[in-house]
Amino acid sequence: MYPKGNKIYRDLQELYWWPELKREVTDFLSKRLTCQQIKAEHQLPLRLLQPIKIPLWKWERKLAKLYVAKIVRLHGVPVSIISDRDPHFTSWSWKKLHEALGTRLDFSTAFHPQTNGQSERVIQILEDMLRSCVIDFRGSWEDFLPLAEFTYNNSYQSSIQMAPYEALYGRRCRTPYWTELSEQRVLVPELISDTEDKVKLIWDRLKAASDKQKSYADLKRKKIEFSVGDLVFLKVSP
Q: Which parts of the sequence belong to the Integrase catalytic domain (predicted)?
């Protein structure tokens, strides 16, 4: 499984160096058949989607138990959650669960996936990784899901300029590469101080990345102001 070329280059650069490292990484990925097969399509899909309505009553309680066991137990109760308007997330029981936990639910606007664009992008990357694993190693994608998650969490992210694991825990994750290299040992006071500095740094980098993304998006938009009483068309689902 391979992340994007820049991410692989960043990870290799931390441990190794040789002349034209970045070019060789790019050439290697460009020649891999698997990388070409999993490359995401950015074209309008053909034919209209025919969704299958999902029954909710049987899954609502299971979803709540899974959320408490996998998220709340390990990371605590979130302040807010941004999600699309999937029936699972707009159901009465899901809303009541988060009302009891004190979590605010923010739903993306209909026909505007950019609201939750960060999650959509992560999902696309994980899908590419899983597709690559199935092509190369065969088997069910579920078998490779933990490896895909581990790879993504330890890959360099340009928005925060470090890996998600390092941002969350304040230190680099131990990987198989470390068996060949000496591990860095950090004392507890140094770890706390370093973590506080990284939290501040991550906030600054996320703000800069957000501002940069907004400036690019605004180039293809125009500013419109509405006054009280203006009549407008509202785009709704059919």
A: 1-172
